[in-house]
Amino acid sequence: MMAKVRWINLVRIVGLSLVLIYHFFKDILPGGFFGVDVFFTFSGYLITSLVIKEFQKNKTFAFLPYLKRRTMRIFPPLLFSVIFTLPFVKLLPSDFTAGLDKQLASAIGFITNYFEIFKGGSYEAQLLPHLYIHTWSLALEMHYYLLWGLFCYAAVKVLKVIIKQKEHKVNAFKITVIFMSLMLGLSSYLHMQSLFNQYSNISVAYFATTSHIYPFFIGSIFGVLFGLEVPDKVSQTLIKKRKFFTIVSIILFLISLISLVILSASTNFEEVFSYRYGFILASFLTSIMIVSCRSLHETVPKRINEYHIISHLADLSYPIYLFHWPLFIVFSNVIQNKVLSVLLTFALSYVFSLLEFYFIEPMFYRKNNINLKQNESFVNIKIFNKNITKPVTIFISAVFVLISFKVFAERKDISDLEKEQMVANVVQEVDNFEALKSGVDNLNPEPVVQREGISGFDNLENSLQQKQVVQREGISRFDNLKNSLRQKRTVQSKTSSDFEKNVPISRSQVNVNVTMVGDSVALGARKKLLETIPNAFIDTKGSRSLHDGYNLITEWQKSNSLGEYVVVALGTNGCEDWETYINKIINELEPGHRLIFVTPFDGHWTETWRSYKTMQYLRSIKDKYKYVTIADWYEEISKQPELLGSDKTHIGGNSKAIQMFVDVVENGIKSAGAKEVK
Question: How does strand 628-631 pair with strand 594-598?
Answer without folding.
Answer: parallel
